[in-house]
Amino acid sequence: MKFYLFTALFFLTGFIHAQDASDPCNKVIRGYVLDAETKEALPLAGIWINGLEKGTTSDEKGYFEISGACQRLYDVDIHYMGYEEFSIKINTSENKTHQFYLLPDSKQLSEISVEAAKEYRETMQAVQSIKGKALDMSRGKSLGETLSMISGVSTLNTGATISKPVIHGLHSNRVLMLNNGVRMEGQQWGSDHGPEIDPFLATELTVVKGASSVRYGSDAIAGVILVAPSALPDEIGQDGEINLVGASNGGMGTVSGIFQGKTKALGGLGYRVQGTGKRAGNIRTPDYFMNNTGMRELNFSTAIGWQKKKYDLEAFYSRFSSDIGIFRGAHIGNLTDLRLAMQRGIPYENAIDGGLSYRIERPRQEIVHDLLKLKAQYRLQGVGELSAVYAQQTNSRQEYDTRRGYTTDPSRLDPELDFSLYTTTADLEFSHVPIGRLQGKAGISGMHQANVFRGRRLIPNFRSYSGGMFLIEKLILDQWEFETGLRYDYKWMRTFERERDGAISSETLIFDNYTASASVAFLPNSKWKIGTHIGKAWRAPNISELFSFGVHHGAASFEIGDVSLQSEVAYNALVNARYLNKNFQAELTLYRNYIQNFIYLKPVFPEILTVRGAFPTFQYTQVDAVFRGMDGDIFWRLHPKTSLISKFSIVRAWNLIAEDFLVFIPPDRTEHSLRFDLPAWKSLTDNFIQVGALLVAEQKRVPPESDYTDPPAAYQLFNLAIGSDIRLGEQKISVGLEVNNALNTRYRDYLNRFRYYADEMGRNVMIRVKIPF
Amino acid sequence: MNSLMNKFSALLLATLLLATACNRGEEDPDGDNDGEVITTIVLKFTEAGTNNTLEFTWEDLDGPGGNAPVIDPIVLANNKTYNLSIELFDKTDPNDIEDITEEIEGEDDEHQFFFQGKAVGNLIRIQYADEDGDGNPVGLKNTVTTISTGSGTFIITLRHELNKNAAGVKDGNIANAGGDTDVEATFQLTVQ
User: Which residue of A lies nearest to B90 if distances are taken between CA atoms?
Assistant: First the structure.
């Protein structure tokens, strides 16, 4: 169909120039195709000029130009998947750059993403995004919780305040996170180390499922999470938004604001300032409060940039800071205590008698993450586009344990674990202008890291240098798309540890890998897309897997690293089928991930004896493992005002060496929602009510002797959401009410490290207000 | 705008040089700094009415992992009453031995020792012989009476920030105490 043919014109449309003025049909119709609500660009929108019988597609900024128009009135049709058809009459005598605002097909608010030519799309993998109204409905939730709205994504939790995304059963160092295009580097090896990104800085959250190392390098074994703000404003003017969120459980309050604009001054400078403040107190299960589970967060980001015809420049800075209390009843000493806690079923009285307090005491975590990004993009006509990104980030994480008693020694106020990680990255990428039907890009990237650790012995200091280079080529035919890529990565690391006698011991490690990928997609018409993707991904063992030697308090375990661990190499095969039509959309992903040298913690005996008693002891070991599974999404408009949204995901993970299941794999889950669109009433529009249920099965596939207790029972949670847009004069305010765990169900989740000690959060009523201006 | 590009490039270059030139001190690591290690537990059994003291030690000088703890077997005489005192030390730095017992005395209302194992009740009877500011037991000083010959485990547990008012805790029953376990040392106790 025309729609897909025009993809090949992607790079060329930007370079069409106006013709000689003496030719009467020398008019150019140009404009931007934008989302009426978010004002964001709609790339690859189909534009057709009736009468001129010419069409094109918009570029990644929503911009298009069609030349050769004569001096007359034309009927212009613009279409974009997920939006209402747009028609307008244009008089070419007004020689201006138009702006066309398309309304999202408001009844089609599914979380299934829409075709868009963003960078990640070029890898043709199974991709899903959360943006627009769906993202608005998730405001106030942590990044991990928000992402779990996507099928195939669940969370690994430490209580209710720390939530890490799990893609296809894999997490931590097997999921790469990008903050505005920059690799997030922190102590992400820790299962109780949550991602240090403010979801409010994003207008789109994307999950790319499957091996993505060719494009992004190490760690992209299960997939990549992209947290992306929108491009800086392109028109002179200012706008912004204020978001307010309140939640009953924990008495949580969040305020977030964004102010952005473009000024004619300083050469047409675009700018944005954004900030979020969040405060929450002790959370409550259906039966009791959990002492010391409050948290505070203060985040800030700013960006400035220039967007010119030949080049773009951008500078971006973000700061994330949070203070998280760790549940008093989870800071258990040793195996005896752990067994006692599990037998009790309910924490000790002095861990649950605190009421709704906002005080955060020891044990607690304090995290600050700073990120600076500088980007320059240069377009060479007829050759391609060159982009250079430089980023500097600092991750500072302090963990404070409970302290024994009275002391005047000031050093005792120090954190028990003090991590500082400094990362510098530089990326250079070149996308060449299409050669016939062939599009592609090549890139080179480098990273320097310095890790400084202080406190109770856990991981050493290190310095590392990594580099990578890749090439990806894509062939776009009428109904078929082919893509292949190749990459080489190299990592050099030297560690520094001070031994008891004062000497410094040092290890030097080198990891290098080739990765490759191939994808094929079949798009017979605008409704269907069937694709298959095969890729090889890798990751270097993380510092904890290599060098851990000590008690991990939160987990009541003694963990031993292995410096001889090799890189994990994953071979991933994925099939993705998508069907899109006005009233029914479905997507299904099937995958098989064979991971060689899969690193996991294997119990070893005898247990290590310390002054606190015996601790179960684990050794980081490598095996070969296979992860297989299926994710599905359905959006079905049963009736003009009623829709059904369903998702499910299944993961099976097998240890090929032990010939048994792997431990801590998410159980099967399915989620169903029924959405009723209500008619507008007075100044209330876009009204809806949504009721939903989440069903999580019991994880029965666990190897024996692998865990302190059996996985928890299956559970069902019910949710309710109501939303509306209120028009007060010129101002529109969006409000939403959400009730999670509406029936106050008592339950425990297998992937919550606190399930040994306490139940999950009870009912939570959230109110959201969004005020755009 | 060339001048803009030039300014930006200059800024970029400067930041790049500045950042990569920074040494973060990773080559000069601090040593293991665990402020809360207890390496040594000393049990002193003094025969009531005499100056005869039997001393038994639980010691793990290199901390968790490494060499296993060295645990003295406890040998007591039957039908005798002893005053048992417990002392705790951090001997990680032999030149600067920290007396942890003092710290526990300083916050005695937040600490309590518990005694369990086969030996308790079968070979010996043990009773608290000290009090904190609230009149609750601590367990740094105890009275031990040997009642029968034999051998069995003697487990000493120190709880911190426990609930001394929960049922049974004042009598030495650990079940409802809660708090954090700072010490859990198992000795082999023989009464001859």
Answer: A611
At A608, is the secondary structure helix, strand, or coil?
strand
pLDDT at site B5? 54
- Which of A403, A404, A411 is the best substitution to test chain B (most B C-beta atoms within 10 A)? A404
pLDDT, average across residues B101-125: 93
Residue A488 CA to residue A458 CA, distance in Å, equals 31
Q: What is the pLDDT of residue B10?
A: 55
Interchain proximity B26–A411, CB inside 8 Å:
no
Counting other chains too, the contacts that A69-74 makes at CB distance below 8 Å and 24 or more residues apart are A69/A25, A69/A27, A69/A28, A69/A29, A70/A24, A70/A25, A70/A27, A71/A24, A71/A25, A71/A27, A74/A29, A74/A49, A74/A50
Query: Is A763 at the interface with chain B, CB within 8 A?
Result: no
pLDDT digits (tens, 9 = 90+) for A3-56: 444 333 433 332 233 333 344 688 888 888 988 877 788 888 888 888 777 888
Kindly tell me if the per-residue pLDDT of B145 is higher than 90: yes
- pLDDT confidence of residue A7: 37
Residue of A130, A117, A160 whose CA lies nearest to A284? A160
Q: How many CB atoms lie within 10 A of CB A435?
A: 11
**How much is the pLDDT for B2?**
54
pLDDT digits (tens, 9 = 90+) for A86-123: 888 888 877 788 888 887 764 443 333 333 223 334 44
List of residues 6+ apart from A312 with CB closer than 8 A: A305, A306, A375, A376, A377
Low-confidence ranges of chain A (pLDDT < 50): 1-23, 106-123, 406
Written in H, E and C, the secondary structure of A294-347 is: CEEEEEEEEEEEEECCCEEEEEEEEEEEEEEECCHHHCCCCHHHHHHHHHHCCC
Measured distance CA(A450)–CA(A399) in Å, rounded: 19
Rounded CA gap, A699 and A495, in Å?
39
Bridging pattern class, strands B74-76 and B180-191:
parallel
- Give residue A477's pLDDT: 85
Assign residue A658 a region (left: φ > 0; alpha: ψ between -120 and 50; beta: otherwise).
Answer: alpha
Inter-chain touch B29–A504, beta carbons under 8 Å: yes
SS3 at position A474 = strand
Let me know the angle formed at the C-alpha of A102 by A96 and A105, rounded to the nearest 5 degrees: 175
Helix (H, G, I), strand (E, B) or coil at A2: helix
B161 has a chain A CB within 8 A of its CB: yes
Asked if residue B76 lies in contact with residue B190, where contact means CB atoms within 8 angstroms, the answer is yes
Query: Is A607 near chain B, with CB under 8 Å?
Result: no
Q: pTM, whole model, 2 decimals?
A: 0.83
Coil, helix or strand for B104? helix
Written as six digits, the tokens of A105 are 């097909």
